[in-house]
Amino acid sequence: MVHTANLSTERISELLGQEAELLNFSTPAISKERLHVPSPDFVDKIFANSNRNPQVLRSLGQLYGSGRLANTGYVSILPVDQGLEHTAGASFAPNPDYFDPENIVKLAIEGGCNAVATTYGNLALMSRKYAHKIPFIVKINHNELLTYPNKFDQVMFGSVEEAWNLGAVAVGATIYFGSKESTRQIQEVAAAFERAHELGMATILWCYARNNDFKKDGVDYHTAADLTAQANHIGVTIQADIIKQKLPETNGAFNNIAFAKTHKKVYSELSSDNPIDLCRYQVANCYMGRIGLINSGGASSGASDLSEAVTTAVVNKRAGGAGLISGRKAFQRPLNEGIELLNSIQDVYLNPEITIA
């Protein structure tokens, strides 16, 4: 089935509001001709000649071939691991239905998502009923907030083999780049991704920066384009098939914090202050788009969630990204509103008038 966008370009422009100029941006620092852009044959073009075995290609085909965005080269994923990352109470109190993992899977299906990404426990309980109805992405590591005082460390919650047993097409993991535990996390996740590929599953990496010293002089550089892009580059190096990253909000972390290494051309020739350019630098660090970049939807802000989600989708698509992974904006509201929000995100990618800048 071929899906079409319900949101018109005019309606998308209305939702963008003051950011509507994003639709007209046409002078990117890195030209689109250098990119490997999402397309219906993306898996064939990028992975057919790689080291990924036929079972991984089949899993990637399922992932890219499901939901309203099926066979477009784009993905819309519902992630619900916040019950561990932020505590269940903080995550599900706005809509207690989602304490029940079946409602998470139902939202992903009814919302037209390519896949649902959530915890071992959630998907284990739902595996026999839903593994053949929507692609499962098992999140294999998490932070936990019961250690007092709180610490922030991603630890493994189960095995890659068990993710395979419950029918997952992919595993997902987070690395807190910049944290004192990041070296161990890189080693653990690299080994897990290697095993996942051996078993025929795809791999998705949440590439998050985390260090208190990434805030300086009142500026939070956790979402700086140069810093997050380097996290992406490490992620593709350990063979992530898709990179999840927060949308960049600033730049210049390496110069202003005075660490790591960079080059003046990163800021003068390869990026600008435009949000699309900042995101494109993230895409460039995903092997120029050979590995798809999906940006996260972020926390729920209430009434502005729809416009924020559409804006993020427009930036990601026009930058050369591969889609959006949005959770709290969708599940922290009534089911019909969550479906509407997910469909609106998907409509950006289905709209042929919104093109790569």
Automatic annotation (TrEMBL):
Belongs to the DeoC/FbaB aldolase family. FbaB subfamily. Keywords: Lyase, Schiff base. This is fructose-bisphosphate aldolase. Its EC number is 4.1.2.13. SMART domains: DeoC. GO terms for biological process: glycolytic process. GO terms for molecular function: fructose-bisphosphate aldolase activity.
